[in-house]
Design goal:
The protein has 418 residues and is of the alpha+beta class. It is 67% helix and 9% strand. Helix 10 links the parallel strand 1 and strand 2.
Length: 418
């Protein structure tokens, strides 16, 4: 119930509890002012006694209603007694109809049963209509006709007002139900908002954890593709130094080992700061791939060729870094596992895609039989495939034992941001 409805209900309660006192007092004052309408002494004594009885009944009901709220047998008795007093007073003086009309206000609150509730206001309308027709008893036949007409009019009005009141009460109940439903909905919505806030916090935590895990994977892949390969190259050069036949040969391989160490140190720094590979710092992807293939051939002694097809374009830094890392990993795998003598690397610009192909004549393998990661902790094909998929690309591998390997990385062409 709203504050407005509560205030209206409080006012109605005040009218029902104090109204009979006020109306009885007004009717008494009017009867005194029109004493000529009650000429006999006995009638005046009766009026005084009935007025006193009316006030006494009101005082009694004021106490009884506190313990018997709502329609009850006691309330019905009180209503009937009050009506009888009002009808008798109206018979003695028509101005007491002001007191008789109190039965219009509280029939629903006092009388139990629908039929009795209808009878109560009708009984009150008899005294009111008699007063309006000139006062009971009637001295002229025409007064009976007027009384009958007034009785009909009053009851029609009561019916209309009662119907409108019922509709208003129904609307009030519907409004109260709507408000209650809205309150329940608001409560549920608030709960949902609280749950969403908790879920949002949880998602932030999960996203932070996922970011940490992704950064760990990135660093692991960078270390594998740069430091591990650099250290492998350094070890290979130092092994050659150990068996070098003369000092110039040993110095040459020591210089290569030192260059690999400096290169690996630069790659480590850039991996930590998530920067582009060293080879891409000043050159585009074709030049970086050419340098990588040349250095790899010098280090391994295999014959390697690099070819560019199509019109070369400046690629987005992420695409260039990804393709370069895939090429480095593929060449590293070729050196460690394939024992190839010839390797061909081709970078193709085909409209809206870029394709990196790496072929060798090594021993080959069965792609379906390989684990996702090597026992030494390398990322291998799984790492290259993950790199390609991270930039909406794909990686395909064709190989069989004894017939070499062909690897192809296909990524969308995204140009360098100016």
């Amino acid at each position: 119930m709203t504050a407005v409805d509560t205030d209206i209900e409080r006012r109605w309660e005040l009218v029902r509890s104090k109204g009979p006192y006020g109306l009885l007092a007004v009717a008494t004052l009017l009867s005194v002012a029109t004493a000529e309408l009650t000429p006999g002494r006995a009638e005046r004594i009766a009026v005084a006694g009935l007025v006193a009885a009316g006030f006494a009944v009101q005082l009694w009901w004021g106490r009884a209603s506190r313990t018997r709220p709502g329609p009850s047998t006691t309330g019905t008795v009180y209503y009937v007694v009050r009506w009888a007093l009002g009808f008798a007073l109206t018979w003695l003086n028509p101005f007491f109809a002001f007191y008789a009309v109190t039965g219009y206000f509280d029939a629903d609150e006092l009388i139990g049963g629908r039929r009795l509730r209808r009878i109560g206001p009708f009984a009150c309308s008899i005294g009111v209509s008699g007063s309006q027709a000139g006062g009971l008893p009637f001295a002229e036949p025409v007064q009976w006709v007027v009384f009958a007409g007034l009785l009909v009019v009053n009851n029609v009005m009561l019916t209309v007002v009662g119907h409108l009141t019922s509709q208003q009460e129904e609307r009030s109940r519907a409004r109260a139900e709507t408000i209650a439903e809205l309150e329940r909905t608001n409560t549920a919505l608030q709960q949902a908002l609280d749950e969403n806030a908790a879920l949002h916090t949880q998602l932030l935590v999960q996203a932070r954890e996922a970011g940490v895990a992704d950064e760990r994977r990135r660093l692991a892949a960078e270390i594998h593709d740069t430091l591990a390969q650099g250290l492998t190259g350094i070890i290979a050069q130092l092994q050659v130094v150990a068996s070098a036949p003369d000092l110039p040969t040993a110095r040459t391989h020591l210089d290569r080992a030192a260059a690999l160490a400096r290169h690996s140190l630069g790659e480590a720094r850039r991996s930590v700061h998530n920067l582009a590979p060293v080879a891409l710092e000043h050159d585009g992807l074709p030049q970086a791939l050419q340098s990588t293939v040349t250095e790899w051939a010098e280090r391994t002694g295999a014959h390697a060729e690099f070819t560019v097809t199509g019109t070369a374009e400046q690629l987005h830094d992420e695409l260039s870094a990804t393709l370069l890392r895939i090429a480095q990993e593929a060449l590293s795998n070729t050196a460690r596992h394939a024992h190839a003598t010839r390797v061909g690397v081709t970078l193709s610009f085909l409209g809206d895609v870029v394709i990196l192909d790496i072929r060798d004549d090594g021993r080959g393998f069965d792609p379906l039989a390989l684990p996702e990661r090597t026992r030494t902790g390398g990322f291998g094909l799984a790492g290259m495939r993950a790199r390609a998929e991270r930039i909406a690309g794909s990686l395909t591998v064709e190989s069989e034992p004894g017939h070499g390997t062909a690897l192809s990385a296909r990524v969308p062409l995204v140009r360098h941001d100016p």
